[in-house]
Amino acid sequence: MTALNEILKNSLFLKIFDNVSDGVYCVDRERRILYWSKKSEEITGYGAKEVLRTRCQDNILKHVDDKGTELCLEKCPLVKAMEKGTVQTEEVFLHHKEGYRVPAIVVGIPVVGESGDVVGAIELFREKAEKSFLENEIKQLRRLAFVDELTQVLNRRGLEYYLKMKLSEVERFDRIIGVLFIDVDDFKSINDRFGHHVGDKALQFVAGTLKKNLRTSDSLARYGGDEFVAVVELKEQKEIEEIAERLKNLIAASYIVENDQIVRVTVSIGGVVVKERRDVDEILKRSDELQYESKKKGGDSCSVSF
Hints:
Blueprint: H1 3-8, H2 11-19, E1 23-28, E2 33-36, H3 38-44, H4 48-51, H5 77-84, E3 88-95, E4 101-112, E5 118-127, H6 132-142, H7 156-173, E6 176-184, H8 187-194, H9 196-212, E7 219-224, E8 227-234, H10 239-252, E9 256-258, E10 261-263, E11 267-274, H11 280-296, E12 301-305
Parallel strand pairs: 11-12
Antiparallel strand pairs: 1-2, 1-5, 3-4, 4-5, 6-8, 6-11, 7-8, 9-10
Helix pairs in contact: 8-9
């Protein structure tokens, strides 16, 4: 039995872990997961039976950065905490069991045994995004038939309503917004290979990754089929490139598991910066044209216009 196991036998520790508002899990020096809290299950969708005794290298949570780099295969906060013997804090994107990416703040804490040696580490993690505003907005709009049932984001009608509202703000308050037209690459092959039920799951995890990683001031809609549109507020024009690239990378790093097979998708994105009142159809047409330019590059690409 490892020294960390002895520490975890202390019921006081477990009582504390089970009552904190963050997700908590503990690993030994070999990065085997020895404890998994109820809040961890709530945030990630993974139950203790699926996680305990696996190792970080098995990469269940698949922490990535905004470029899609798999941190669990590199120097994750837990490894740094154990190597340096100090608390490590990072912003990551963890993998939910349903496939989408969740922005999270993680804290790696080294655990020191009686001998003074580091015997393992504890990770605390919580969702970074404030989702209450968006969730309340969705509940209100659902009553107006503005929400897509499959993905639980705005539908085309809801997008038109929301975009007109944002265009009014552009005109009245001299704001800048970006409109991103997002299309799943080669989606037909997912349906053909795995069936439409898996295609639906793929659309759900794409929508989930997008929704979780937009700000409360932004909005997302399913435009139709495998197409999504995000409306984002911009501080400056070039920010649209950073947002589009980040979303593209996070989707490429997301996945679901179906019959022991990993199912991934990529997206092509076209983005338009809007600095003055314009016609909704014109904006969507132009962003769709730019999305098609990304598609012609081979997919998994972004094209934006200022």
